[in-house]
Each structure stands twice: as structure tokens, then as C-alpha cells.
Amino acid sequence: MLPAETVFNQSIWGDEGFSAILSMKSLPQIIKIIATDTSPPLWNITEWIVFNTLGTDEVYIRGLSFLYFILTVFFVYKIGTLFYSKKTGFIVALLTFLNPFFFMYAFEGRMYSIMALGVTASMYFFLKIYYRPKEISLLTKIGYVFFTLWALYSHHFAFFAVFVQGLWWIKEMLFGKRITSKKVFKLFLITAIGYLPWLIPLYNQTKMVGGGFWLGTPDADALTNLISEYLALGNRSLSYTIPLLGVKFYDIVLYLVITTLAIRKWHRQIEKNIFLLLWFLGPILITYGVSQFFQSIFYNRYLLYTIPGAMIILGSGRRKYISTIPLFLTIVSFFVIDLHYFTHPKKLPFRQLGEYVSQTRQEGDITINWNSSAHHLWETKYYGFDSPIYIPEGGDLPYFVGTALMEERDILRSIPSNAKRVGVTTSGPIEEIELPGYTEIKTARWEEKGLKFLWLEKE
């Protein structure tokens, strides 16, 4: 029997809260606000549809993301079947579904699953055009344009996937299917026209990020760590150590994946292998290179749409019998990791905190968020107790996702003189909370998650 709380209905966290609060506004407001943030609007538009038809509960937010995840897995199956066989299609779809990093973000109330769907579906129709040229139909062409725009309107990092397609188009135009490439070029143009409405917001958002972003410049370890995360180490919440060996369970899984890749038939269908490697490694290496010489943009969740390419490689080119054991053990290990993650929610319990505040709040009380650099503004808004970020006079608010949605009342520079009690939300050390003239009278702690709420009373 599953526990009462799973990743489907666990509390939302900051970025999810920002998206949810934004999606509760009208469509024109959503477009206007998101244009001054750092991403395109498609996730919020579809979340707005869900909110206005089903409701705003956590399960609907997570369910929407999971739906896009399932559709992504479906298109992985289609690519596996297109390139290889139905059996391989099933295997690569299963690997994609169970991939620990991909599975973890399947329940994230942000734009990651919707972007992965757009990229994977775009790749499918792109490959179908080249590898089934006699079957090119109007529906295939529409499918490519629709899902490529879907990806681009979901997240700016989808451009790197289109860049990979562009490299393949150049290869085919110069050395391969030129007639087909001419048809694909027309589809590129139609897609570009479809993206024109977002060019100005894209320029402004790029300029804003170029002026300073929160990501640091990645080193070689960051690159290898990201690739390892995508292959096997993406979820380390199950930190079980294998007896006698003294090795973490998830490290064993990485060894299984490496073994499966090492014995793969790389010499077969080389062209397809090259395309899949470009899909997997191309965007990763491009963003790594950009981050070295320009603004750092290297971040694991932004590139998770490359995981399907890696899983198709992992599950294809199998050697009869010899690949069976490591591949089977990899699938079983992925399942164990995912089941543990699904049944052991890790996000801060803001739903419980909201219930506590509503039960203990008195007339005239005010509530605040203590840490301006790691605040919980959007969680407190979502759970019904608006708590402005407390930044004393002279303090600065760092830039973060969601700044575009903030209002003047979301910043508090001083505690009102008539406030008899102040409620403080923090996930940092309690010792750093100090309000002159106020004494702590009651504290609620969720120690296993590091979340605290304090009631302070005026002396």
C-alpha cells in the first residue's frame, strides 16, 4: 500500500509556486509577466487551462507534468520502432520512463516535461522525414512544425536541439538526401515564422540573463557529473551501501550502464548512432562551451531533453545474450530507485506549515519570510498566508526566477509598529532570526526537512 503522501501530492516548492501563482492570473497577464522573466509561456498557458478546468491542487500540477512525461516516452517508443524494431522501441521507452533523473522531473510543476515532449516529438518527425521519405505526409510535416514550436515556446534551451537538427540537415544537404533536405528547409522557415511573435521577448530575456545570472562557470567535473546524472546518478536519494563491497547502490547502477554501453554494437548502423550521440551530447557540449566564454547557462534540468537520446543508445545495438544481464539489472535498479523516490517525498512540507499558521494565527498578526536569498515567498502565497520577504533598510534583493511577478507589497523593509506578533518562515538556522523588541514564544519545526516557523511577540 502506497503512503498517503507521494511525489504527486507533496507540497510544492519555490519555482513551482511561482509558476502556479502566475498561472492563476488571466492569459494576457501571464504573457505580459512571463515576457519579463526568463522563459517562454507554454507551460503556464497549459497550467492555466488545468487550473480553470480541474483545480489548483498539487496533484493537478504534478499530473500535468507527468502527462507530458508519458507522451515523451511514447515518442521515444516511436523513434525506437522507427530506427530499430518494436521490441527495441519498448526497451528504450522503458529505460526512458525509469531513468532516475528524468523520472524525478516528471513530477516537477515547471516546464521541463513539456519541453522534453516538444523536443522528442520534433526529433521523431524530423527522423521520420529523413528515414521514411516515401511516407512523408502533410501530417508528418505539420507534426514537425507543431512540436518544434511547442519545444521553443516551452524553454529557450530547445534551440540547442534544433541546432542539432540543423547540423544534420547540413550533412544531408551536402552528402545525402538533398531533395528531402530542401523540403525540410521549408519546414525550418515555417517554424521560424511561427516563432516570430516571441523574438522581442526572447531578445529582452537573453539581454537580461546576459547582464548577470546566478549560475557559476562549470568546470570539467561539472560536465562529467551531468553526463553521469543523465545516465544513472540523477537521483541519489536511495543512498544504500552494498554490504562487503562498501559501494553505494547508485554507483553500481552507473557501472551497469557503462558495461551495457561498452558491449554495445557500436559498429552497426553508425549513422543512427551518430545522430543519437549528437542529440545526447550536442546540447550539453554547446552550453558548456558557451558557459566557458560567455554567460554561464550550464544547468542539468535545462538539458534533460537529451536523456531520451542517451536511453535510445543504451537500449539499442544489443548483443544477443551478453547484453541481457547488465541491461536487465539496469532496468530493475532504475525501478528500485524510482519507487523509493516516489514513496519518499523530499520537498519542504509547506502544506503542513500553512495548516499550522491558519490554526495559530490571531487577528493583527503579520507573517514574513526571513532569508531574502533563499526565501519562500511563492510557497507561502500558494498556501494562503502571504509573507513578504523581510529585507531591512539598506539590504538588497538578489535576482531570481519569479522576480517579474513580484509586487511592491512582497518586500517588507521594517516591521509595522502596531504588530504585536510576527510569524517568521525560514529553512535556515533559527539563530540568525533577530527582531529587536520581539521575543520567540512558539516554534514549529519539521526537522527532517529543515523547515521552521516561529511566532515572536512584542516585548
Short description:
The protein has helices at 14-23, 27-34, 42-51, 58-83, 86-98, 100-104, 112-131, 138-152, 158-175, 178-195, 199-210, 220-233, 249-262, 270-293, 307-315, 324-343, 350-360, 377-382; strands at 241-242, 247-248, 366-369, 389-390, 411-412, 421-426, 438-446, 451-458. The chain has 459 residues and is an alpha/beta fold. The protein has two domains: 14-343, no CATH class; 350-458.
Helix coverage percent: 55-70%
> Shape, please?
globular
Quaternary form? single chain
Major β-sheet strand ordering: 3-6-8-7
> Count of helical segments?
18
Quick one: biggest sheet? 4 strands, mixed
| Ends distance | 50 Å
Low-pLDDT stretches are none
The averaged pLDDT comes out at 91
Which structural class do you get from the secondary structure elements? alpha/beta
The percent range for strand residues is 5-15%
Provide the succession of SSEs. Answer: HHHHHHHHHHHHEEHHHHHEHEEEEE
Number of domains: 2
Q: How many strands in all?
A: 8
Q: If you compute it from the alpha carbons, what radius of gyration comes out, rounded to the nearest whole angstrom?
A: 24 Å
